[in-house]
Amino acid sequence: MIYMWKEERGQPYYRFQTESRKAADKMKRRQNFKLVGWGVNCQVWVFVAKINRGDTAKKVLKTLSGNVVKFDKNEDLFYSPTDLSDAVKEAA
Fold first, then answer.
1. CB under 8 Å to 48, separation ≥6 — which residues?
2. Which of 17, 45, 59, 88 has the fewest CB atoms within 10 Å distance of its CB?
3. Crossing angle between the packed helical segments 21-29 and 54-65, to the nearest 10 degrees
4. Per-residue pLDDT for 89 more than 60?
5. pLDDT tens-place string over residues 51-85
């Protein structure tokens, strides 16, 4: 799962959080993504990216996950499930 939210209203910075090593590796290879947090005893990575438009940020999220982007009104964040093959590998 990859989560995305805007850091601050009026600013072009978005946070991306994932538990998927594959998605984290994709974000590490991108120039505009910066690793700002990670889990020590668990697999979690948090990145910040400078993206000027919200619709562009949603497209980036869709590209990273390869899946449909959904919005959670209660938490005010976008999320997208990552590749199902990753979930099968982690469960085994």
1. 7, 13, 14, 15, 16, 33, 34, 36
2. 88
3. 130
4. no
5. 999 999 999 999 999 889 999 999 889 999 876 55
In this structure, is the dihedral angle defined by the CA atoms of residues 47, 76, 71 and 42, taken in order, positive or negative?
Answer: positive
Cβ–Cβ under 8 Å, residues 67 and 78: no
Indicate the SS3 state at residue 78: strand
CB 34 within 8 A of CB 47: yes
Going by the DSSP 8-state scheme, the letter that residue 43 receives in this structure is -
Whole-angstrom Cα distance, residue 8 to residue 31?
A: 21
The mean per-residue pLDDT over the stretch 3-8 comes to 94
Specify the DSSP element, H or E, that contains 90: helix 84-91
Overall pTM surpassing 0.90 (yes/no): no
